[in-house]
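## retry 2 of 3
previous attempt timed out at serialization; input unchanged, resubmitting
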Amino acid sequence: MNRPVFKRFGARPRFPAPLWLLIACFTASLFFLLFQGGKLASMLFIIITLLSIYLLSGNWSGIRRAQGTRKISNLGQEAQLEAGQSLQIGIGVQIPGFWPIPYMMIKDQLIRLNGEETIFEGSLVPDWKRKGELLYSTPPLRRGYYKFGATECLTEDIFGFFQHKGRLDLTQSLTVYPQTIVIREWAQFHQMLKGMQHHSTTTRAHRETTQINGVREYIYGDRLSRIHWNATAKTGTWKSKEFERESLPKTIILLDRTARAYGDVAEFELAVSVAASLFRYGASRDLALGLLSIGKESTFFEAKQSQNHHKHILKHLVGVEADGYRPLNQILKEHTRELPAGCFFVIISPQKGAVMMQVLTHLEHLQMNPCHIWVHDRSPQAFKPLGAQQDKQEDWIKAIRAQGYMGYEVNQLTDLPNLLGGAKRYA
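## retry succeeded, writing output
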């Protein structure tokens, strides 16, 4: 099958309308000089020629070879950016060449992992060294993984006839962690551990095992059997054996990611922030915490005490979404074998009622100690009387505690330390 020539070899180049206008003006002035002559025609031709040279030389303005840097002023190299914070960004540009540039438009884009794209536009006037800097602030960022796309530069001649574009390759990745809050003490949690262990629940006071974990400096009062003779002989100073400590009962945190359970995005972000805050508390107390993240794909992290383990869990919480659709009770039964017996099981979920009560009962039958942190956003019920709304919330918490389970109702992240610390109680 024969195709037209212009289709086989590509589409014909299309010239912009201002270029045709410039060619028409130059041709008219040339014909005017050839057929009319005189000073007026000569001056007009010279002016049109100089303007044409200026306008056409914009293709070599240097903006296509522009170089730039991106600097985030309010974020250090080791600083951790949390959700709700904004960035102060500065883009510095250096333009080579000599063609005069009256101003420059810069378009920067910030792309989230799920495809959301935010465009930032601004203008700057280069100095006599053909340098300039654009400063802008981002809105409060959501939790997730971000990357900066290509930065576009645009300028025009003084008449606005032609636009000249360039691109800066300033790609950069950015991680926004879940928003957390400092929890000083979880009163009921440690009271429960005190009853289970029959001794002090201070994590640094639990008993030691017979497994050697390393060597430490000698402390006055150490028994003779604890002295590490080989290390003492090599170093010339007294060294003692360091034994591993007996682990406290393990804690599993379940994050419910069922899509239909959450009323809006803010409610799910609250659940993720509560989970991240609990892991931050566990890391500060050397608690063995694990995570069961139930969504479209279930992810299970065993309960461990290492800092690297907590970092892996935090990275998982950065990218989770409310994409689950299966019943919570069904998925929990599938992971029953992976759950350690006798653990403390914390459920972070907006669900309540008979379904959640079945989950709590099932965990109790597995000899676990369940706890429900009920994340709930009051905004969808703003039209209801405040008294009726509060009574309904207290009824669910009372129903949980009447069965002997631990339960908390969290409306906003700032309430979490007081709730866990025992400042707020339902009668």
